Protein backbone atom coordinates (compact mmCIF):
# COMPACT_ATOMS: atom_id res chain seq x y z
CA UNK A 1 0.00 0.00 0.00
CA UNK A 2 1.02 3.63 -0.31
CA UNK A 3 3.46 4.67 2.39
CA UNK A 4 5.15 7.93 3.27
CA UNK A 5 7.82 8.02 5.96
CA UNK A 6 9.37 11.30 7.06
CA UNK A 7 12.71 11.54 8.79
CA UNK A 8 15.44 14.05 9.55
CA UNK A 9 13.75 16.21 12.12
CA UNK A 10 15.39 17.24 15.36
CA UNK A 11 16.58 20.07 17.54
CA UNK A 12 18.65 22.77 15.88
CA UNK A 13 19.83 26.21 16.90
CA UNK A 14 18.58 29.34 15.13
CA UNK A 15 20.49 29.83 11.91
CA UNK A 16 21.14 26.12 11.59
CA UNK A 17 20.13 23.63 8.91
CA UNK A 18 18.21 20.39 8.62
CA UNK A 19 17.35 18.14 5.73
CA UNK A 20 14.06 16.31 5.92
CA UNK A 21 13.39 13.20 3.86
CA UNK A 22 10.12 11.64 2.76
CA UNK A 23 10.65 8.05 1.66
CA UNK A 24 7.77 6.68 -0.38
CA UNK A 25 6.50 3.37 -1.67
CA UNK A 26 3.41 1.76 -3.10
CA UNK A 27 2.57 4.13 -5.96
CA UNK A 28 3.87 5.50 -9.25
CA UNK A 29 6.20 8.12 -7.86
CA UNK A 30 6.76 9.81 -11.22
CA UNK A 31 3.15 10.95 -11.64
CA UNK A 32 2.64 12.31 -8.15
CA UNK A 33 3.04 15.83 -6.85
CA UNK A 34 4.52 15.95 -3.37
CA UNK A 35 4.12 18.62 -0.76
CA UNK A 36 5.61 19.47 2.60
CA UNK A 37 3.38 20.93 5.26
CA UNK A 38 3.90 21.92 8.87
CA UNK A 39 1.79 22.37 11.93
CA UNK A 40 2.85 24.29 15.00
CA UNK A 41 1.05 23.88 18.34
CA UNK A 42 -2.27 25.69 18.30
CA UNK A 43 -2.02 26.55 14.62
CA UNK A 44 -3.47 25.15 11.44
CA UNK A 45 -1.45 22.99 9.11
CA UNK A 46 0.16 25.14 6.44
CA UNK A 47 1.87 24.46 3.16
CA UNK A 48 5.63 24.95 3.07
CA UNK A 49 6.68 23.74 -0.34
CA UNK A 50 5.68 21.36 -3.10
CA UNK A 51 7.14 19.83 -6.24
CA UNK A 52 5.16 18.73 -9.24
CA UNK A 53 5.44 15.41 -11.04
CA UNK A 54 8.19 14.50 -13.45
CA UNK A 55 5.66 14.95 -16.26
CA UNK A 56 5.27 18.57 -15.21
CA UNK A 57 8.98 19.26 -15.15
CA UNK A 58 9.19 19.01 -11.36
CA UNK A 59 8.29 22.64 -10.90
CA UNK A 60 8.42 23.92 -7.36
CA UNK A 61 6.37 26.22 -5.19
CA UNK A 62 7.24 27.82 -1.85
CA UNK A 63 5.39 29.65 0.86
CA UNK A 64 6.51 33.27 1.16
CA UNK A 65 7.68 32.66 4.72
CA UNK A 66 10.34 30.16 3.61
CA UNK A 67 11.42 31.44 0.20
CA UNK A 68 15.19 31.68 -0.05
CA UNK A 69 15.71 29.45 2.98
CA UNK A 70 14.15 26.14 1.97
CA UNK A 71 14.69 23.98 -1.10
CA UNK A 72 12.57 21.02 -2.16
CA UNK A 73 13.89 18.29 -4.43
CA UNK A 74 12.97 14.79 -5.52
CA UNK A 75 15.08 11.74 -6.30
CA UNK A 76 13.03 9.58 -8.62
CA UNK A 77 15.44 6.66 -8.41
CA UNK A 78 15.09 6.54 -4.62
CA UNK A 79 11.43 7.61 -4.63
CA UNK A 80 12.29 10.15 -2.00
CA UNK A 81 11.59 13.85 -1.60
CA UNK A 82 13.86 16.12 0.38
CA UNK A 83 13.35 19.43 2.13
CA UNK A 84 16.61 21.27 2.73
CA UNK A 85 16.04 23.90 5.40
CA UNK A 86 18.67 26.56 6.04
CA UNK A 87 18.78 29.69 8.20
CA UNK A 88 16.17 28.16 10.46
CA UNK A 89 14.18 30.40 12.78
CA UNK A 90 12.29 29.62 15.98
CA UNK A 91 9.05 30.18 14.08
CA UNK A 92 9.92 27.22 11.86
CA UNK A 93 9.31 24.96 14.86
CA UNK A 94 6.54 22.52 13.95
CA UNK A 95 5.73 18.97 12.99
CA UNK A 96 6.55 18.59 9.31
CA UNK A 97 4.49 16.31 7.09
CA UNK A 98 4.87 15.16 3.53
CA UNK A 99 1.81 14.48 1.43
CA UNK A 100 1.16 13.28 -2.10
CA UNK A 101 -1.46 13.47 -4.80
CA UNK A 102 -1.65 11.86 -8.22
CA UNK A 103 -1.19 14.87 -10.49
CA UNK A 104 0.30 13.89 -13.84
CA UNK A 105 0.19 17.39 -15.30
CA UNK A 106 -0.06 20.82 -13.82
CA UNK A 107 1.62 22.79 -11.06
CA UNK A 108 1.47 21.63 -7.48
CA UNK A 109 -0.45 23.59 -4.86
CA UNK A 110 0.22 24.45 -1.24
CA UNK A 111 -3.34 23.81 -0.11
CA UNK A 112 -3.62 20.78 2.16
CA UNK A 113 -7.02 19.98 0.67
CA UNK A 114 -5.31 19.03 -2.60
CA UNK A 115 -3.43 16.11 -1.04
CA UNK A 116 -4.84 12.68 -0.35
CA UNK A 117 -2.12 10.77 1.45
CA UNK A 118 -0.05 11.89 4.41
CA UNK A 119 2.94 10.73 6.39
CA UNK A 120 3.11 10.59 10.17
CA UNK A 121 5.26 13.69 10.53
CA UNK A 122 8.65 14.57 11.97
CA UNK A 123 9.29 17.15 14.68
CA UNK A 124 11.51 20.13 13.95
CA UNK A 125 12.46 22.33 16.90
CA UNK A 126 14.50 25.50 16.43
CA UNK A 127 15.73 26.78 19.75
CA UNK A 128 18.86 27.97 21.47
Could you describe the 3D structure shown?
The structure is a single chain. The chain has 128 residues and is an all-beta fold. 0% of the residues lie in helices and 48% in strands. The chain contains no helices and eleven strands. A hairpin with an 8-residue loop joins strand 5 (46-51) and strand 6 (60-62). The chain is globular, with a radius of gyration of 14 Å.
Ranges with pLDDT <50 over ≥5 residues? none
Spatial shape: globular
Give the integer mean of the pLDDT values: 95
Order of helices and strands: EEEEEEEEEEE
Instruction: Please work out how many helical segments DSSP would assign.
Output: 0
> Structural class per helix/strand content?
mainly beta
Rg from Cα: 14 Å
Helix content: under 10%
Q: How widely separated are the two ends? A: 40 Å
What is the strand tally?
11
Main sheet specs: 7 strands, mixed
Tell me the strand percentage band: over 45%
Structure keywords:
128 residues; single chain; four-stranded antiparallel β-sheet; 0% helix; mainly beta; 11 strands
Protein topology:
Layout: E1 3-7, E2 10-12, E3 18-25, E4 32-39, E5 46-51, E6 60-62, E7 70-75, E8 80-85, E9 94-102, E10 117-118, E11 122-126
Parallel strand pairs: 2-11
Antiparallel strand pairs: 1-3, 3-8, 4-5, 4-9, 5-6, 7-8, 9-10, 9-11
Amino acid sequence: QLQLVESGGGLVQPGGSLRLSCATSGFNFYTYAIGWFRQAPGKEREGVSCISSTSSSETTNYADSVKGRITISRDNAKKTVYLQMDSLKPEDTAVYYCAVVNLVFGPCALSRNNYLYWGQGTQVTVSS
